[in-house]
Design a protein that fits this description.
Organism: Pseudomonas fragi
Oligomer: single chain
Keywords: Nucleotidyltransferase, Transferase
CATH topology: Spore Coat Polysaccharide Biosynthesis Protein SpsA, Chain A
CATH superfamily: Spore Coat Polysaccharide Biosynthesis Protein SpsA, Chain A
Protein name: UTP--glucose-1-phosphate uridylyltransferase
Largest sheet: 5 strands, mixed, barrel
Order of helices and strands: EEEHEHHHEHHEEHEEEEHHEEH
Distance between the termini: 28 Å
Radius of gyration: 18 Å
Number of helices: 10
EC number: 2.7.7.9
Helix content: 25-40%
CATH class: Alpha Beta
InterPro entries: GalU_uridylyltTrfase_bac/arc, NTP_transferase_dom, Nucleotide-diphossugar_trans
Structural class: alpha/beta
Strand content: 25-35%
CATH architecture: Alpha-Beta Complex
Shape: globular
Length: about 280
């Protein structure tokens, strides 16, 4: 069974400056809860209890958030404000947290490789916290993907259809359909121009990776933007028929930019906060 989930969280969050100049983008609150907490809750609901976070300079707030604040706990003990800590207390009691630092920003592939000492030789999930995914009508996205991994025992990547004019923002896949919303990946291109994109099926920030990905990343030369791209390493797996793309059930909000962040805030306010499910 998959138990580990890796959160690459060392990036600068430049699309959300100046808010992210001194605050990690993963700590941006959606209503009253930071982005990364939504991601960890999704991981726990999927049975992933060993949480590994790749951090960087200025990211200490992430470690502090997933820790006990004794002064705060003592201050609100016995008051109705304790209800606001129910969710984070659950995570602290049911998950373990480990951290390592990415000292250079060399792309998502490099960030995942940096997490190797925390993961070891096991299959694992990867969550990009600024992609907030929710499914009001069933299993969360990671739960859906874990079930698929248990069936296929290979790398699973989450995809969604995007506007063809926006393929230059994503890794884009092409492949053959092998089931409902499932594709065996044959081609994968990082941020192609619309006229060069093999499809409009874009990779979003949810992955389940087999441990051989680490050696494939080490063998990968810098690609688009001079960064080590995870899509280049995944393409090597795909050449052996070992990557499945899954068009997940649910909604995804790109909280790395203002428009998606505001949409996510409005959605979570209506569906979680107002209904008392936000804590």
């Amino acid at each position: 069974m998959i138990k580990k989930c890796l959160f690459p969280a060392a990036g600068y969050g430049t699309r959300f400056l100046p808010a992210t100049k001194a605050m990690p983008k993963e700590m941006l609150p959606v209503v009253n809860k930071p982005l990364i907490q939504y991601g960890v809750e999704e991981a726990l609901d999927a049975g992933l209890t060993e949480i590994s976070i790749v951090t960087g300079r200025g990211k200490r707030a992430l470690e502090d958030h997933f820790d006990i604040s004794y002064e705060l706990e003592n201050q609100i003990k016995g008051t109705d404000k304790e209800k606001y800590l129910v969710g984070i207390r659950r995570l602290l009691s049911e998950c373990s947290f480990s951290y390592t630092r990415q000292t250079e920003m060399k792309g998502l592939g490099h960030a995942i490789l940096t997490g190797r000492p925390l993961i070891g030789d096991e299959p694992f999930a990867v969550v990009l916290a600024d992609d907030l995914c929710v499914n009001l009508e069933g299993d969360g996205v990671l739960t859906q993907m874990v079930k698929l991994y248990n069936q296929y025992r290979c790398t699973i990547i989450a995809i969604q259809e995007v506007d063809p004019a926006e393929t230059n923002k994503y890794g884009v896949i092409a492949g053959e359909m092998i089931g409902d919303d499932l594709y065996r990946v044959r081609n994968m291109v990082e941020k192609p121009a619309p006229e060069d994109a093999p499809s409009n099926l874009a990779i979003i920030g949810r992955y389940i990776l087999t441990p051989d990905i680490f050696d494939l990343i080490k063998q990968t030369e810098p690609g688009k933007g001079g960064e080590i791209q995870i899509t280049d390493a995944l393409m090597k797996q795909a050449q052996n028929g070992c990557v499945i793309a899954y068009k997940f059930k649910g909604q995804r909000f790109d909280c790395g930019g203002a428009e998606g962040y505001i949409e996510a805030t409005n959605f979570c306010f209506e569906n979680f906060y107002k209904t008392g499910k936000a804590y």
